[in-house]
Design a protein that fits this description.
Blueprint lengths: L8 H17 L5 H8 L5 H13 L3 E2 L8 E2 L1 H11 L7 H8 L8 H16 L2 E5 L8 E10 L2 E8 L4 E7 L6 H15 L4 H12 L6 H12 L1 H4 L3 H4 L2 E3 L3 H4 L7 H12 L1 H9 L6 E5 L11 E10 L2 E10 L4 H19 L1
Antiparallel strand pairs: 1-2, 3-7, 3-10, 4-5, 5-6, 8-9, 9-10
Length: 344
């Protein structure tokens, strides 16, 4: 994080004006424009001198010799940390977000809707990561036979999280044995976290059913328990809104940048890695080169973690470094609070 304490009040005011103008116009900003729009009480020549000082310090740069200045990542960081004034969602935005509370949908549905609404309101790419399921308590299991050798195992977890997987079984297992084992699994496993279940599964099921058919089915769960009760990949799936919002930004007008954007939306593993570390960090803003992965150096990630008890996840947006930080930060924080309320 850059040290901005050495910037004078006058330099900070000019920096703020350049950032705000560039965010609005996506065009390099000149001293005449700043003097006309912001009434800083100094001449264009003085503003030009201050902009030159800021350029020497690494906060602005010239895209072309005769052009105005453009903020650097360092400038956006200084703006966010030193001069930005928060902008809470307006009434129209609050109304749009309030629709998330219209019904108590499952967590997955809430996150999809939240990411979509954030994308529309911010004109960026809305993103979300579901709560980590390792520490979520199992409420109930259901076993449904879908074919002679296939069972559907339904996990009903706390906070409305539902996951399903298929389990291969011998065709000889009778329907009544399936239902009996479903009851055994609920008696022995419900009320415990998936993490605890995986660690203690053999002990919990060892003497659970004495019949031959039941024992055969239980042995499958004991032998394959690490895989069956490991929902880590499911819980860390990345939810994205439509990339069309970002595609309309000037930064993505060129074919290479557009291609990189599309590749980014397809690389869910890259996004998951970038978002996973933010589960317990509250509001998090990484700007351009602050991102550890070089493929994200043209982008800003603004996220806020949501948490209820041991459940934690991430909601936010990804967009170009040129973004209205004051508005977006307020929307992201407000949305994370709504998601927390729905999880409760």
């Amino acid at each position: 994080m850059p040290d901005t304490d050495h910037l004078t009040d006058r330099q900070l005011r000019v920096l703020e004006a350049v950032v705000q103008t560039y965010v609005e116009t996506a065009e390099p900003t000149g001293s005449q424009t700043i003097a006309r729009r912001f009434g800083l009480g100094v001449s264009p020549a003085t503003i030009r001198s201050i902009m030159s000082e800021l350029e020497d310090k690494g906060y602005l740069f010239h895209p072309h010799t005769s052009a105005g200045r453009v903020p650097t990542d360092r400038a956006y960081r200084a703006y966010v940390d030193r001069v930005m004034r928060g902008s809470p969602p307006n009434q129209q935005e609050r109304t749009a977000l309030a629709e998330l509370q219209a019904s108590r949908a499952a967590v997955d549905d809430v996150l999809h809707r939240a990411a979509q609404v954030l994308g529309v309101l911010t004109q960026e790419l809305g993103v979300a990561v579901g709560p980590a399921l390792e520490t979520v308590i199992l409420d109930r299991l259901e076993l449904v036979r879908v074919s002679a050798e296939r069972l559907l195992l339904v996990f009903n977890l706390r906070s409305g999280v539902v996951r399903t997987i298929f389990v291969q079984v011998p065709g000889s297992v009778a329907p009544d044995a399936v239902q009996r084992i479903a009851q055994v699994l609920n008696d022995r496993l419900a009320g415990h976290t998936l993490q605890d279940i995986r660690a203690t599964l053999p002990e919990r099921l060892r003497d659970a059913d004495g019949s031959a058919a039941g024992r055969e089915l239980l042995n499958i769960f004991i032998a394959e328990g690490d895989g069956i009760f490991d929902l880590a990949d499911e819980s860390t799936a990345v939810v994205l809104s439509s990339a069309q919002m970002l595609a309309e930004q000037p930064e993505f007008a060129s074919s290479p940048r557009m291609r990189n954007l599309l590749q980014l939306t397809e690389r869910r593993d890259l996004l998951r890695q970038a978002l996973e570390s933010r589960r317990r960090s509250g509001l998090s803003i990484t700007i351009g080169g602050e991102n550890s992965d070089p493929r994200l150096t043209d982008l800003t990630l603004v996220t806020s973690s949501y948490r209820i008890g041991d459940l934690s996840g991430v909601i936010g947006v990804i967009g170009p470094t040129r973004m209205p930080y004051d508005k977006i930060i307020g929307l992201v924080e407000h949305t994370s609070q709504l998601v927390e309320g729905l999880l409760e």
